[in-house]
Hints:
- The structure holds 2 protein chains of 2 kinds.
- Chain A is globular and about 40 Å long.
- Chain A is an alpha/beta fold.
- Chain A is built from 5 helices and 13 strands.
- The longest helix of chain A is centred in the last third of the chain and has 18 residues, at 181-198.
- Chain B has a single domain (4-243), classed as Aldolase class I (TIM Barrel, Alpha-Beta Barrel), CATH 3.20.20.
- Chain B has helices at residues 31-41, 55-69, 85-94, 103-107, 110-119, 152-162, 183-192, 206-214, 225-228, 234-243, and strands at residues 4-12, 15-16, 46-50, 76-79, 98-101, 124-133, 136-141, 146-151, 166-171, 197-200, 220-223.
- In chain B, helix 1 (31-41) packs across helix 2 and helix 8 (206-214) packs across helix 10 (234-243).
- Chain A binds chain B through residues 10-12, 14-15, 17-19, 47-49, 52, 79, 109-117, 134-135, 137, 139-141, 157, 176, 178-185, and chain B through 1-2, 4, 39, 44, 66, 69-76, 89, 92-98, 117-123, 165-166, 194-196, 219-220, 249, 251-252.
Amino acid sequence: xxxxxxxxxxxxxxxxxxxxxxxxxxxxxxxxxxxxxxxxxxxxxxxxxxxxxxxxxxxxxxxxxxxxxxxxxxxxxxxxxxxxxxxxxxxxxxxxxxxxxxxxxxxxxxxxxxxxxxxxxxxxxxxxxxxxxxxxxxxxxxxxxxxxxxxxxxxxxxxxxxxxxxxxxxxxxxxxxxxxxxxxxxxxxxxxxxxxxxx
Amino acid sequence: xxxxxxxxxxxxxxxxxxxxxxxxxxxxxxxxxxxxxxxxxxxxxxxxxxxxxxxxxxxxxxxxxxxxxxxxxxxxxxxxxxxxxxxxxxxxxxxxxxxxxxxxxxxxxxxxxxxxxxxxxxxxxxxxxxxxxxxxxxxxxxxxxxxxxxxxxxxxxxxxxxxxxxxxxxxxxxxxxxxxxxxxxxxxxxxxxxxxxxxxxxxxxxxxxxxxxxxxxxxxxxxxxxxxxxxxxxxxxxxxxxxxxxxxxxxx
Lengths: 199, 252
């Protein structure tokens, strides 16, 4: 499986790249977004801000949405999960609108929600081999409010929010699997397997 | 949420200053090797502090960060000598998950706004060095050599309003003493801001870590010497915390 990691021009892509390579994927970092609609598998990493990321993706957003809706496997991490939705409190302008719902400011005492927190997940292949209550690393101020039943895990911080979604080979996680030690690498390998099986 | 334990490595010209001795291991000076070793011990995050961020040192630091990011799967914060927006960008680009900014933010507080807007608050850490003056604390910059006249609590609040996502708080009075973190300072900053606070400076024993994460109310504790000289592992610290009822994360 060849995974294209979207490079919005900010932040660390080394850990997510190496994590996916360890999961058996071949990885390429994509700065020329015109190639994205043809990608075999897309990863939207979790760095930067909603508006800045969407500004860069805007020229190809229709094509990317079309590709993913017709079955290209994809994983959104943190901000990368949020831009899959319609809109966000963080910035004006729409998201990719591949998933229905919006992104709202998290109602916690200390924001950003920064550090290791529990994940309570349903019996989903993305969480194969991940014990219930495992801790993942978060660094977010916003959370997704999906419409429809696509949530596959919940996390509590000030409020209970959806911390992972899956719809076929499209996955989104609010935490950073590439920063969550060995359990995070397990989740990345589950994603690569889901992507390969959908191909 | 668990409380975080964060080993800090002082890096100079791409190497860890003085090296580090783990139990049963010879002294090592290679940042990626040490960072990964700490991850295996259960470290929740790693901090690299560039102790003499000279122009010639920057490239070697970046090489060390890049190599580390390719092997490390817990967050990495890099600080020391971050002077500008482009320094922040470059540090994130080579593999840091967060950058800590100290002097440059005091000189130009709008740097915090600009970086938070472009990269997100979650990767902008305000490094705040504070020294007690009568009943309050004063902000120091340039590795503790320059008194700014700023009140530490007021500056912490302002930095958060500008978009800092976390505060790395070092007590200059406690730093290097190994007599414990400055509990009063830590608690005062924690209560003044609504972002996570990492306490630093003064850690000499496991009890000090427990104290700053309980009565000090800090979200995370940074320590160097108790880990570097093989005195304790991260896991030992976590066992002590857990026995005091403090939530910690197990695993590597």
